[in-house]
Amino acid sequence: MTEAMPVAHSQLSLPQLAGLSAAQRQRLLGVTCIGGPAEAWHGELPVQNVAAPLLGRSAGALNEIWYSAESCRSGESAGIRFRVDDNVLYGVIDVEESAYRGGPLPLQQAAEDAYRRIFALLDRESCPYLWRAWNYLADINVERDGLERYRQFNIGRHDAFVVSGRLAQGKVPAACALGTPRGPLTIAFMAGRTPPTPIENPRQVSAYHYPSQYGPRSPTFSRAAFAHLPGQELLFISGTASIVGHRTMHVGDIAGQTRETLANVAALLESANGLTRSTPYAMSELSLRAYIRHAEDYPSVQAIVEAQVGTDAPVVYVQADICRHDLLVEIEAMASHTLGNC
Ligand code: 3EB
Fold first, then answer.
1. 207 CB within 6 A, ligand 1
2. What is the distance in A from the centroid of ligand 1 to the CA of 199?
3. Contacts of 119 (CB under 8 A, 6+ apart)
4. CATH superfamily of 7-338
5. Which of 172, 221, 324 to mutate to test the pocket of ligand 1 (most atoms within 8 A of CB)?
6. 179: number of CA atoms within 13 Å, CB side?
7. Cβ(177) to ligand 1 under 6 A?
8. Where are the domains of the chain?
9. What is the secondary structure of 56-87 as a DSSP string?
10. 18-67 pLDDT, tens per residue?
11. Which atom of ligand 1 lies at the shortest distance from residue 214's CA?
12. How confident is the model over 275-294, as a mean pLDDT?
């Protein structure tokens, strides 16, 4: 755990978690548990369970913990568990689609409702700026009622951004959206009191400008974003895939897709380095999460990722469905720099 950084994330085993001091627990913002259900230790913490298997690890589940600089307060509102301090809010909402079964597209309604509730909470807590959202839903590529479920999710999410006025103001967060074999729609999010600086990729059409062939409503996310806290700049790189312009490249070719994805991550770093308030960011300092559609592709992806970012970089590999059926891999990343005077 990095003491120097105001906001940090790290991976802890269950015994390590159990061994945290009371002071350290006070600073916990929340937990992501990948590959297995979170254990009972979390009490009132926001916990996102990602019902997708880890790849390349012998041990079962992975707990990724977010810390703040300060003591946090816990809250629960409209099905959202959250922790908040003077600068940052982290929350998790799980929505069961069965609650919306009467309507035409339950997932669309679940997504709209989830995001409306998130925005209401952020306004109430005076943390109006959504920096990053992590979206997971079951059967993301499955067509139901005539429309792929990812596209249904996009309509609901988009509508919530429109209703709240956030789309008109260009306030879309960095994000990812992945498919899991089961589980509710689950959204984790980080928000703050300062507006994020969105970062786009010159090699790609902005996702919110995708043509309608990818669905009736565009996905609402920025390719990356900076978030600023006192003395700190956080860089969130959204889920990034083998897309150039708006088209999928290297269909059926995992090595080609992985290389193209990393070229997009590198392009995002270059854009970010034109906007940073800190020193330039390098590929080697990123903390990454790689989502791989087919478990058997893991060795190929790992070899290419390690060749680019080194063997020491923290990379978590997860088997998950990517939101276009022809995408085989997606990579997201984070980094953090301290800021001198602020
Ligand atoms: C893409 O570039 C790949 O719907 O929130 C990446 C990141 C993707 C976020 C989202 C989707 C999302 O379109 C998919």
1. yes
2. 14
3. 130, 160, 164, 166
4. RutC-like (3.30.1330.40)
5. 221
6. 22
7. yes
8. 7-338
9. S-SSS-EEEEEE-SS--EEEEETTEEEEE-SS
10. 788 888 889 999 999 998 876 656 678 899 999 999 998 756 788 899 99
11. 13
12. 96
Q: Quote the DSSP letter at residue 149.
A: H
Contact by Cβ (8 Å): 117, 178:
no
Residues belonging to the active site = 330
Q: Which atom of ligand 1 is nearest to the CA of 223?
A: 7
Instruction: Give the pair of three-digit tokens for residue 280.
Output: 């330039």
Query: How far apart (Å, rounded) are the C-alpha atoms in residues 101 and 311?
Result: 47
For ligand 1, atom 13: residue with the closest CA: 207
Nearby residues of 338 by Cβ (< 8 Å), 6 or more positions away: 4, 5, 231, 232, 233, 278
Q: Encode pLDDT of 92-128 as tens digits.
A: 999 999 999 888 899 999 999 999 999 999 999 999 9
21 CA distance to ligand 1 centroid (A)?
38
How far is the C-alpha of 285 from the C-alpha of 277, rounded, in Å? 17
| Cα(131)–Cα(114) distance, integer angstroms | 16
Question: Within 10 Å of residue 43's Cβ, how many Cβ atoms?
Answer: 9
Distance 241 CA to ligand 1 centre (A): 8
Q: Transcribe 88-129 into DSSP letters.
A: EEEEEEEE-GGGGTTSS-HHHHHHHHHHHHHHHHHHHTT--E
**How would you classify residue 237: left for phi > 0, otherwise alpha for psi between -120 and 50, otherwise beta?**
beta
- For 241-269, write each residue's pLDDT tens digit: 999 999 999 999 999 999 999 999 999 99
Is the CB of residue 220 less than 8 Å from the CB of residue 167?
A: yes
Cα(306)–Cα(318) distance, integer angstroms: 16
Pocket mutation for ligand 1, best pick of 131, 176, 237, 293 (most atoms within 8 Å of C-beta): 176
State the closest ligand 1 atom to the C-alpha of 238, by its place in the atom list counted from 1.
7
